[in-house]
Amino acid sequence: MLKEMFLGVLFGTVTGITPALHVNTMASFLDSLDILSGFSFVLLVYGMGLTHTFLDSIPSALFGVPDEGTALSILPAHRLVLKGRALEVVNISLWASFLAVLFTIPLLPIYPSLAEKYSPNIGRIFVLILAIFLILTEKGIKRVYALLIFLLSGYLGVIAERFPMREPYFHLFVGLFAFPTLLISLRSNLRKLEFDEDGKIKMKFPNFLFFSFLGSLLGMVASLLPTFTSSQAAIIGSFISKDERSFLTVVFSVNTSNFLFSLTNFYFTGRTRNGVMILLRKRHIHLTHAQLNFLLLLTSLAVSLIIMLYGLRLAGVIGKLLQKADYRKLNLGIMLFIISTSYYFDGFIGITFLLTAGMIGYLAVRLGVKRTNCMGVLMLKIMLELKT
Asked: Model's pTM, two decimal places?
């Protein structure tokens, strides 16, 4: 079991620090190899998925390439990175994720009763209220701009469902959130990134605890409702958190908490809330209560402690390498890599959606509205669905 857990940490580290490489893609690759079965396979992919939630702040902060769970952290993270606080962003991610694991454990006993009360309509009501708040938080004419961005991104999400693509949300999320950031970086005069040496979190500890606990609760809600994703849960946190650090704490805690609770949901209800759980269902793997407790308690704590030992040091090594690179050329290379990956997944159709999403995301920047309005890519589709 130790071997599978350490392999999970290793593979999760690879997916976590690699731009545009999602943990679901690696899980599917491991599934195709068919080297493990039963609980050993569960232990491997669970450890990998949990590790990924700790470390995916590195590419989302340094390179501007998000996945669904961290898409909303892009701009706040970059504001800190440009101030030379890149390692602090990673440290916030590590500690927020670690605290999310600790906060999740005492909440587990009440979770099954909540999961059984799930109703699809509850999720739609949540999303509708969230969309209204999202648009109304803008001021004046920007409310009209926000609605425009919401509808454009939402319509793109609806259209994407009608095309036979392998990875539709890769093109959509990377286009909406990463491409505009990379374009802005290319237009800037920034050639070298400055990195803080200590990564110290400049936030009062009681505040950090509060926002991490808030993120853990929102992650629990996101795992209950298939219509309510990690990013949408983080939007609620954005109404409460008023600065970059508190917002990032919420986002990273939501991401980890959502992953942890999704396994419990799968065990008690059979519902899948992420790609890893879909893979477990496809393999028809049944967990005993003892195995579930082993994963959620011992494995989660062990994996978390291991990552805390090396996570910040790994980010520091990557930071030193980036300091030697031309940042504009690096971002250009990442853009080309993204386009190539998009083509690999879905050919010219994928690139078309990638570039279209990129134009919508860049329009949001030009109009001066929050790019959280681009979450219409998921929210409009949810509100229009007749059933789930």
From this structure: 0.85
